[in-house]
């Protein structure tokens, strides 16, 4: 029995054209990162449902005042509340902002009681910043010694002329 004649180039083409089938490795699945965030959101929604909170619509922004004078600001947050149990859930993208950035926008939202507490907060913030500035001045951090121009030690023209004379002397030695 004789071996059949085969063309190696045709065999290579057939092997290259083969996609899948018996003996080929399986394709690995690529995990999408968006699925993890959606899973967290579902867990959050399930926990809120157990707490019997209802979504509150029409909330454009939420500001939480911290003791250090900064404000945790949420723009367009999702708010859920259960008023009888005094429970609120606020979630969204929160940013730490300075109180002075938000004051013009929040003055019309505050009532007379809140204005008095805001004044106290502003006074304590001013005292805090004044204290920090005094501490910096005492420790020497406030001085900018590195920003000054250093004094001129040498005359650069004389150094340049001396270098030129040395170069001429070397050229004369070579010649």
TrEMBL record:
Transmembrane segments: none
Biological process (GO), any one: protein transport
Domain NAC-A/B per the UniProt entry, residue ranges: 38-103
Superkingdom of this protein's organism: Eukaryota
Keyword set includes Cytoplasm: yes
GO cellular component terms given for this protein: cytoplasm; nucleus
The keyword Transcription regulation appears for this protein: yes
Annotated Basic and acidic residues bias: 162-175
Localization: Cytoplasm; Nucleus
Entries under Gene3D superfamilies matching the protein: Nascent polypeptide-associated complex domain
Acidic residues biased stretches: 141-161
Alphabetical list of CDD domains matching this protein: NAC_BTF3
InterPro entries the UniProt entry points to: BTF3 (IPR039370), NAC_A/B_dom_sf (IPR038187), Nas_poly-pep-assoc_cplx_dom (IPR002715)
Similarity remark: Belongs to the NAC-beta family.
PANTHER family cross-referenced by the UniProt entry: TRANSCRIPTION FACTOR BTF3 FAMILY MEMBER
UniProt-recorded name of the protein: Nascent polypeptide-associated complex subunit beta
């Amino acid at each position: 029995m004789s071996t059949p004649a085969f063309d190696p180039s045709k065999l290579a083409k057939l092997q290259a054209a083969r996609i899948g089938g018996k003996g080929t490795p399986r394709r690995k699945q690529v995990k999408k990162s968006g699925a993890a965030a959606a899973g967290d959101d579902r867990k959050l929604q399930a926990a809120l449902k157990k707490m019997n909170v209802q979504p509150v619509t029409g909330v454009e922004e939420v500001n939480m005042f911290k003791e250090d004078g900064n404000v945790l600001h949420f723009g367009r947050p999702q708010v859920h509340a259960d008023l009888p149990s005094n429970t609120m859930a606020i979630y969204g993208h929160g940013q730490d902002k300075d109180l002075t950035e938000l004051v013009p926008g929040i003055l019309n939202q505050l009532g007379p009681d809140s204005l008095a507490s805001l004044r106290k907060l502003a006074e304590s913030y001013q005292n805090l910043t004044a204290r920090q500035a005094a501490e910096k001045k005492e420790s020497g951090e406030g001085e900018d010694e590195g920003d000054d121009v250093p004094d001129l030690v040498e005359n650069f023209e004389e150094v340049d002329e001396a270098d030129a004379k040395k170069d001429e002397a070397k050229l004369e030695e070579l010649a």
